[in-house]
What we know:
Elements: E1 3-7, E2 10-14, E3 19-22, E4 25-28, E5 38-40, E6 46-51, H1 54-60, H2 70-80, E7 87-91, H3 97-104, E8 108-113, H4 116-128, E9 135-139, E10 152-157, H5 162-166, H6 169-172, E11 173-183, H7 186-198, E12 202-208, E13 214-217, E14 220-223, E15 233-238
Parallel strand pairs: 7-8, 7-10, 8-9, 10-11
Antiparallel strand pairs: 1-2, 1-6, 3-4, 5-6, 11-15, 12-15, 13-14
Amino acid sequence: xxxxxxxxxxEYLLERGERLETDLGIxxxxxDAQAGETVTTHLDEAFTVRELRGPDCFAHFERTGAPMMPxxxxxxxxxxxxxxxxxVLDAGTGTGVLAAYMGRAGADVVTYxxxxxxxxxxxxxxxxxxxxxxxxxxxxxxxxxxxxxxxxDALTLDTEDAASVVEHASDLLVPGGFLAxxxxxxxxxxxxxxxxxxxxxxxxxxLETIQREMDFDERGSRPSTAGVGHTGYLIFGRNPGNPPTEx
Length: 247
């Protein structure tokens, strides 16, 4: 797994054994570098070693597009309860931040990315995040493989055709399994809700996350006047499984 070298407002994500060259000098990250240790460049400039955490994946992964924001990822993780031992089917890998979060939580993730170049970058990001063994990045369209994948504890989608996958959610999810779909547009969010209803899912809800920073200075305290940007809509549902039969 990679580590971060931190000094003031500088952060560098590097593999152990990798060489760093900056205006502060040159160093090679020790193979046995541990969090909290100090390493120095040939100019005797010090950096602190820090282990990679989930938010660092968002900040430092190589991007192939706009990754899902941490506030949206938090809702996905909180509403689905994805944890160690879960099996997750993900589609629309992109940069792979959500897949990495789920892998770091201990889940086994199969994620599909249509663009071969994007998929290769995602594989490199999974290696940096230390989850290459638990996140299987596959190149292709998940809709071509739905009959061969088996069942999952969670289904997470960030694709334009998410509704066409949601139609199969009751077959893809174990009883009690969760669906989470991210959509930037309300039209596709509406399509997903309709597909979830048709698939017989329960506990369907649609959310938009609005988050404001607080400003504290000598004049007083108030929410930040910076614009609140829209990220996307999140649609959740759950496979109720087969109802019990009455004797």
